[in-house]
Every structure is written in C-alpha cells, then in structure tokens.
Amino acid sequence: MSIPISRAPDAGWTDPECPVARTLDLVGDRWSLLVIRDAMDGARSFTEFQRRTGIARNILTDRLRKLTAHGLLARLTAASGRRQEYVLTDAGRDLFPVVVSLRQWGQRHGFAPGEAHSTLIDRHGATVPDLVPTGTDGAVLDVDTTRVQKP
C-alpha cells in the first residue's frame, strides 16, 4: 500500500538536507518506533498497541494519528465493520531494516552478557543474521569507508 509521506517545504524539518534528521522527525521518538515494531509483529488495533507497549491512551492516539498522517500506517475498517485497524504501508514496511538494525545493536550493546532477550527469527526458525552494509564492490562499509555528500 503506497501512500505518499508529507514532504511540504514548511514542515519544520530539523535539518532539511539530512535524511537521518528527517527520518527522526518522522519516527524518532520512542513510542513511534515501538508502534511500528508492533505493527511489524502483527498488532492492528488500538487496544493491541496499548497492551503491547503500555503507552498512555492520549500518547498512542497522537502517535497513530501522526504515523497515519505521514503515510507509515493506514487506517482501515476491520472485517467486523465495528473497529479501525492500523496496517503498515509500503513506507512503514520499508522501516523493517531500520528496526532490525536497532534490534541487533541493542542485542550487542543493551544487555549484559548472558542476559535474556527476545530474538528475531526467520520463517525457518533460524536467527536473522546481522545486517552489514556493503558497497557496490561487496566490501563492508563503515564510518571509515563512507562520507556524506551534501548538495
């Protein structure tokens, strides 16, 4: 489901030329990413998001509204016709590698050695391998082998 993200020039971007800053303006608060995470894990209803995250109703209402307005979630009528459901749009689904990278960073740096944590597995039950950016030549990229080119 492709819904355009708001790109109005007067949107108050933190750093209009930086894709990282613009992304953080859209989803950089804790609750937005947790809502996106839970939508990726099958949550659809307001009640489900609230139960999974423990977020206050007013904050959840605000985040769902913003994520919908920015085209990351779409609001649909449930099959029962009585409730609203939230589903990821293509733009929301495109955040999957971002969430996986955050998860993998957290596994490496957010837990004490041996401390229990959830694990992301693929459809075969295998742990998802670490995401590693590579260049066009297949070489691993890092902060020492890349640079930002500004307009």
UniProtKB/TrEMBL annotation:
- Describe the location of the HTH hxlR-type domain by residue ranges: 18-114
Q: Name one GO molecular function term.
A: DNA binding
Q: Name one Pfam family in it.
A: HxlR
Superkingdom of this protein's organism? Bacteria
**Does the record's keyword annotation contain Transcription regulation?**
yes
Q: Which UniProt keywords apply?
A: DNA-binding, Transcription, Transcription regulation
Q: Record's Gene3D superfamilies?
A: Winged helix-like DNA-binding domain superfamily/Winged helix DNA-binding domain
Name of the protein described by the UniProt record: DNA-binding transcriptional regulator, HxlR family
- This chain's source organism reads Brevibacterium sandarakinum
